[in-house]
Amino acid sequence: MGLTVEELERFVTGELGQPRYRAGQIADWLNRGADIEGMTNLSAPLRAKLSELAVANPVRILDSFKSKIDDTEKFLYALPDSNLIEGVLMRYHHGDTLCVSTQVGCRMGCAFCASTLEGRVRNLTPGEILGQVAAANRHIRGDDPERRVHNIVLMGSGEPLDNYDNVVKFLRLVNDPKGLNISLRNISLSTCGLVRRMYDFAAEGLPVTLSLSLHAPNDEIRRKIMPVANAYRYEEVLAACKHYIEKTGRRVIFEYALIKDLNSDVRHAEELARRLRGMRCHVNLIPLNDVKERHLAAPDRRTVDAFLKRLELKHISATVRREMGADIEGACGQLRRSYLKDESGE
Ligand code: SAH
Fold this sequence. Notes:
Layout: H1 5-13, H2 21-31, H3 44-53, E1 60-66, E2 73-78, E3 84-92, E4 95-99, E5 103-105, E6 120-123, H4 126-141, E7 149-154, H5 164-175, E8 187-191, H6 195-202, E9 209-213, H7 219-225, H8 234-248, E10 252-258, H9 266-276, E11 281-287, H10 301-313, E12 318-320, H11 334-344
Parallel strand pairs: 4-7, 7-8, 8-9, 9-10, 10-11, 11-12
Antiparallel strand pairs: 1-2, 2-3, 3-4, 5-6
This protein binds S-adenosyl-L-homocysteine.
């Protein structure tokens, strides 16, 4: 699943010792979500050999939970080495959106995030990132043969730019007209702000929407909740965003988790508006999702509304993110954690 067409051809003619047209047959099966045993135009011995060398679908849905409130569906996936990751499928009027993970765990250490509590276990391969989309497609096709993932947000567990090469390869694979053929314009990549990688990414010529996890109006507050703010200054992060806007012509989305008594006062909204003035951007306000292990909470609704109003007053485009899947632990890293705890009998 993680191979480009050319790589698949090389694998088929090399390791597999088969004529080139077999690559096309295998690719067709992969696109249809088949397993190796189901590739019926390959002979049984060939399928056996293929099974020894490769995995067709590296990601399996181990469990799924559907919200009774809004149809949001949460997946717990298993990887070939038994690691677990998770994902969320959200139904919007513009199509199904899948939130995918890029790493098992995360090493960025943000104070409010459940994905990072045990650090990074490992990077996901391009095939494992793509495999999440394929697994979700197989799952929803059962409900409705026409349904499939239309939009992707790289906002699950992990820091995409900390797994740079695999994420870039995934983006090229998922966009391949012979593959899932998902438009890059329907994909958002969220980063905590690895500035050097942001410049690299701007040079890749991949017009995905960049989301930047800002979460603070200044370095002082940002450093309290995001260790990455010690590596890159606020102004450097904004400069990298401006560069991305210039390069791609796309606006940047700033994610701002509102946290009680920390970053949610109207003063902070004023300061944020000052710093973002003149940028082609949108601010996505997210009342913090409580994470049991962290002593941080969301502010009340009035504080959220006042923050939003102040940004609007200062001509900053902003919205409050609608909460989805509130009854199924929709937020980052929560499901995997509760599953691991059950397993360990905690
Ligand atoms: N590592 C990337 C992408 C993963 S997280 C990044 O940092 O952007 C996707 C978004 O969810 C990020 O903006 C992240 O800061 C936010 N997030 C994580 N935990 C959260 C919580 N408990 N409440 C609200 N937002 C949270």
